[in-house]
Amino acid sequence: xxxxxxxxxxxxxxxxxxxxxxxxxxxxxxxxxxxxxxxxxxxxxxxxxxxxxxxxxxxxxxxxxxxxxxxxxxxxxxxxxxxxxxxxxxxxxxxxxxxxxxxxxxxxxxxxxxxxxxxxxxxxxxxxxxxxxxxxxxxxxxxxxxxxxxxxxxxxxxxxxxxxxxxxxxxxxxxxxxxxxxxxxxxxxxxxxxxxxxxxxxxxxxxxxxxxxxxxxxxxxxxxxxxxxxxxxxxxxxxxxxxxxxxxxxxxxxxxxxxxxxxxxxxxxxxxxxxxxxxxxxxxxxxxxxxxxxxxxxxxxxxxxxxxxxxxxxxxxxxxxxxxxxxxxxxxxxxxxxxxxxxxxxxxxxxxxxxxxxxxxxxxxxxxxxxxxxxxxxxxxxxxxxxxxxxxxxxxxxxxxxxxxxxxxxxxxxxxxxxxx
Length: 421
Prior knowledge:
This protein is α/β, with parallel strands linked by helices. It folds into 2 domains: 6-59 and 360-411, Roll (Urease, subunit C, domain 1), CATH 2.30.40; 60-352, TIM Barrel, CATH 3.20.20.140. The chain has helices at residues 92-98, 102-118, 131-142, 163-168, 175-187, 201-214, 226-236, 240-248, 261-270, 278-283, 291-296, 315-330, 338-352, 386-392, and strands at residues 6-15, 20-30, 33-39, 47-50, 54-58, 60-66, 121-127, 148-153, 190-191, 217-222, 252-255, 274-276, 301-303, 306-307, 370-374, 399-404, 407-411.
């Protein structure tokens, strides 16, 4: 179906930034943009598509991926403790990725993107390894896809600074590294130091200034494990969170799995959003994201699927896992509500990635990028709370269509017969 003017009618809708339920409503679309949302029937005379028995939900936003290791699926799961799986330049994933051709890596990322769309994701942010070449590969993988893919490049090859330079915490980046940074920014949407400990304070300041001058975005991992803090304190006298907030002032942070309440408070007061990656952190035995503490600190939250070699980029699985595991690790069955996870996967993710002006909620003026769930399926049968059913019960099989900019990127919005259980 080509995008034009039409109405989606008769459906339940999770509308607005607060995902308020409209039991029977309409969404009017013109040229890929939502023009009206409301209860009952539309007033315009555009073609109407009856979606009775369906639920319209904003398209999901995946706040953190590493799609480069899509070609290494499952190779990194269940390895012995202490295995260097992720860290450049000797981490196993870098060796495994290098075993394949450039074309094969691009094809694997393209398939991962297709999988994201099929499970409702309309935008993602990727921390892409291997410098300019890695960012270029992902850009090619995204070509021709309607998904919004934001690429955060990083330095490639050997560490940008030597152990001696890092220990002294005074050295600046070399001219070659600055040229590499500029080349990365020319092909990417932003830059992502792996962690604060890969650069000295002066070098972090250089990166920050260069990225901001380019008009691009900046993000990094923080306090994923206690090592982040310990190594930073040893070298500089300050934890990595303090250094990031003082020097980098990123657009968002990722993880903070082992953050203290004080560190979460610092991030909350700084107004910096946070992407939580529950399945990825669990698979790496790093712990579990501090959802309750981050929420109490007033931090805007998003969800991410992290490494494709460990996790499918499926927001439904991410929400379900976090909904069930948070009570287990906190000992509090009321520690998380389904609706807050759905907000994190939609409007929270859009705000985190700077996309809230056009994505993240079903609101007039935003892109018609949304998911059509079939609520006549067994997973939705007898639901007492449709939003909770999306988080706790829904799967790809329940998705009738995914629209991006008003066009079906997966499935079809042609009305299906409504069945009764």
